[in-house]
């Protein structure tokens, strides 16, 4: 694939659908992310799978830095 094709067809999702996703799809996505290269091979990625609205609200309040909490609203 040519670089200009990649650049012209890329997407940045800014609005997400509020619907559940099958756990098998989540596992496939995480497997791909784990196998992807990391900068300086630092391996600092963390993945959180939150399956309930209550846990999501608690996670945003207690686990994210203040700056990210504001961006999640």
Break the fold down into its secondary structure elements and pairings.
Blueprint: H1 3-9, H2 23-35, H3 53-62, H4 66-71
Descriptive account of the structure:
- The chain is built from four helices and no strands.
- The longest helix is centred in the middle third of the chain and has 13 residues, at 23-35.
- It is 49% helix and 0% strand.
- It has one domain.
- By secondary structure, it is mainly α.
- The protein has helices spanning 3-9, 23-35, 53-62, 66-71.
- The chain is extended.
**Rounded average pLDDT:** 83
Q: Could you tell me the number of beta strands?
A: 0
State the helicity in percent bands: 40-55%
Low-confidence stretches: none
What distance separates the N and C termini? 37 Å
Please state the overall shape, judged from the principal axes of the Cα atoms: extended
Number of helical stretches of at least 4 residues: 4
The radius of gyration computed from the alpha-carbon positions, rounded to a whole number of angstroms, is: 16 Å
Main structural class: mainly alpha
Largest sheet: none
Number of separate domains: 1
Portion of residues in beta strands equals: under 5%
The SSE order reads HHHH
């Amino acid at each position: 694939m040519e670089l200009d094709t990649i650049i012209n067809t890329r997407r940045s999702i800014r609005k997400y659908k509020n619907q559940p996703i099958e756990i098998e799809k989540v596992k496939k996505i995480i497997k791909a992310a784990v196998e992807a290269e990391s900068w300086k091979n630092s391996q600092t990625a963390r993945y959180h799978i939150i399956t309930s609205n209550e846990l999501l609200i608690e996670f945003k309040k207690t686990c994210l830095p203040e700056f990210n909490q504001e961006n999640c609203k």
